[in-house]
Amino acid sequence: MFFNFLEKAQKYNLLSKEEIIKLLDSKDNILFKTADEIRKKTKGDNIHLRALIEFTNFCRCNCFYCGLRYDNHSIKRYRLTEDEILSSVDNAMQSGFKTIVLQGGEDIYWSKEKVCNLIKEIKKYDVALTLSIGERLTEEYKAFRNSGADRYLLRIETTDKALYKKLHPNMSFENRLRCLKDLKKLDFETGTGCLVGLPNQTIESLADDILFFKELNADMVGIGPFIPHPNTPLANEKKDNFDLALRVMAITRLLLPDINIPATTAMETLRENGQIIALQSGANVIMPNFTSHEHKNKYEIYPNKVYSNNCINNISEKIKRIGRKISYSKGYRNDSTKQ
Ligand code: SAH
Ligand code: SF4
């Protein structure tokens, strides 16, 4: 099939909802090739590595899809101490990382003051710091930013309001939006994204998700194929969502040519070499896991999470093989050097 609107996308970074749906529905690989070309032109061949530290798996939320949900009593909960976190940061620094991502469930133990102290400790190192700790009050976000946090990841998960409501008991879509707008206003580099393959999620709503990333002018977008977790209400929703998630990711690259897009661990979990495939279809970031061995397996958002690309030698070898290289800059969106 010939998509004449791909040319338009390449030139103007615009697509209509109908065009996005056509791309999502097709099996044609031209989409991936086009996204890869755009990535090369805007971001160059460098791949940014972000060290991911999963510092708590306590969560007050009950998202239907997630293994960390409050009602899952079969996982062992853990919370790293500040010293343990700083030692992981130290490890990441030694390996040459320039970005730390602190991710966790919505853990009320980590009050505004505690998070601010931690941010200040981490920012004593020469690193960019990303937080991914869910929904907070405006004043908390403000305090995190003033303490030195640079970036924040908060996926919208789905823009289908009815589906959002069903999957997130006691949460509100409006508050999620408020959070993302706060983050943008506070000048965080703001990351969002969605899950792909949720039960009752339509292709139309995935097109809306992509248009939402564009409208928000997200600085980073992470796309996760949904992987059912056995101890959640969605345990039996078995489907392979890899291809569709890859298409959502590639179209996002067409519309937002200069943003950072990770090749997500969930993609590697569903396909051997899934992250490399993603890096050749529009992605330019990998987030290796720096959570200590003792706790790694307890951060089970979805089952059988793979860790094959966490060893830096392993990943740099693979990256070299596809003609790309690791960047040792902080990798902001507006990094004009393509370093
Ligand atoms: N609590 C924070 C950060 C941790 S969850 C938050 O919710 O923002 C990080 C991401 O994991 C979520 O945004 C969600 O998109 C993803 N996730 C949760 N369950 C998943 C599953 N079953 N399959 C794939 N990704 C999942
Ligand atoms: Fe908690 Fe995030 Fe999982 Fe929802 S997705 S249950 S907020 S860890």
- CATH-level-2 architecture: Alpha-Beta Barrel
- Count every helix, treating DSSP H or I runs of 4 or more residues as helices: 14
Q: Provide the list of bound ligands, each named once.
A: S-adenosyl-L-homocysteine, iron/sulfur cluster
Distance between the termini: 36 Å
Largest sheet: 6 strands, parallel
Question: What integer is the average pLDDT?
Answer: 95
Provide the succession of SSEs: HHHEEHEHEHEHHEHEHHHEHHE
Instruction: Find the CATH superfamily.
Output: Aldolase class I
List the helices and strands and how they pair.
Blueprint: H1 5-12, H2 17-25, H3 30-43, E1 46-49, E2 51-56, H4 82-94, E3 99-104, H5 112-122, E4 128-132, H6 138-147, E5 151-153, H7 161-167, H8 173-185, E6 189-196, H9 203-216, E7 220-225, H10 242-255, H11 265-270, H12 274-279, E8 285-286, H13 293-296, H14 312-321, E9 325-327
Parallel strand pairs: 1-8, 1-9, 2-3, 3-4, 4-5, 5-6, 6-7
Helix pairs in contact: 2-9, 3-10, 5-6, 9-10
This protein binds S-adenosyl-L-homocysteine and iron/sulfur cluster.
Residues 65-66, 103, 105-106, 132, 134, 154-155, 157, 195, 224, 226-227, 229, 266, 301-302 line the site of S-adenosyl-L-homocysteine.
